Amino acid sequence: xxxxxxxxxxxxxxxxxxxxxxxxxxxxxxxxxxxxxxxxxxxxxxxxxxxxxxxxxxxxxxxxxxxxxxxxxxxxxxxxxxxxxxxxxxxxxxxxxxxxxxxxxxxxxxxxxxxxxxxxxxxxxxxxxxxxxxxxxxxxxxxxxxxxxxxxxxxxxxxxxxxxxxxxxxxxxxxxxxxxxxxxxxxxxxxxxxxxxxxxxxxxxxxxxxxxxxxxxxxxxxxxxxxxxxxxxxxxxxxxxxxxxxxxxxxxxxxxxxxxxxxxxxxxxxxxxxxxxxxxxxxxxxxxxxxxxxxxxxxxxx
Length: 302
Ligand SMILES: Nc1ncnc2c1ncn2[C@@H]1O[C@H](COP(=O)(O)OP(=O)(O)O)[C@@H](O)[C@H]1O
Ligand SMILES: [Mg+2]
Hints:
With 302 residues, the protein is of the alpha/beta class. It has helices spanning 16-29, 44-48, 59-64, 69-72, 89-98, 106-114, 131-138, 153-169, 190-202, 216-220, 228-231, 236-250, 290-300; strands at 3-7, 34-39, 74-75, 81-84, 120-125, 142-148, 176-183. Helix 1 (16-29) crosses helix 12. It is globular. Adenosine-5'-diphosphate (ADP) binds next to helix 1 and helix 10.
């Protein structure tokens, strides 16, 4: 079974999608069959990799529309890298899921179907803490938290680590912290150096060694619809993500990725087991903002 890794931070613009795309690309280049699941309605990873797909066959249609995984998963320009694309439809999933039993486990069902065909599955999450992100975290064995080297990042990181604890205890899901990843690091900026040092001091065992530098190549690669390895493979940003891929591959040796997986997902004759008949639930009882979600949802599980 693949190691499934969510890329999570409820803050936007911290480098989640950049990390998801480029870590996935280097894991693939280093010989791992890798699937990137775009689980953000903004679909930046899908457009950033230039994936052409049928608009009726996205991750949304896989989890709620009965479309089978073999039709949703697309190949990319890299031989070992596949993607499950997203589209704005995914925003609708948030509303539809609310009324369904087992609403937190729809992505996990999908991941269970495809896990035998990959060594790594990366899940790019949206910048929020809602039912979609919860689906992403419950479908993952591990989480990587990109942290931008700026002033408020430390608070955010402590909060996120607490959220992971709640998921471990209240939701009984043994998600491992792969680590915090320092992104947009600029060694010429004092603030950047200080934030990096402070994050490492506070969380000595939970930060990846490599710092991802601020790099124009990383920022412009998506406009060429490529991961950085196909755009500027010698740039500092590219080399950093290659290093990260090696660190990730060496983590958690007791549940390391399988050495062999079948090359393609077979075509399923059966529609995946997605429950289609549901008990009614009060839609009003569901939190509307991230803050309400955080306060009410976890209490729900106590
Ligand atoms: N290391 C980096 N150096 C320069 N620009 C970056 C870097 N990482 C991300 N960016 C840019 O910052 C913006 C936000 O990054 P993104 O990965 O989309 O964040 P998120 O997915 O967390 O919202 C994008 O325009 C991206 O190209
Ligand atoms: Mg993003």
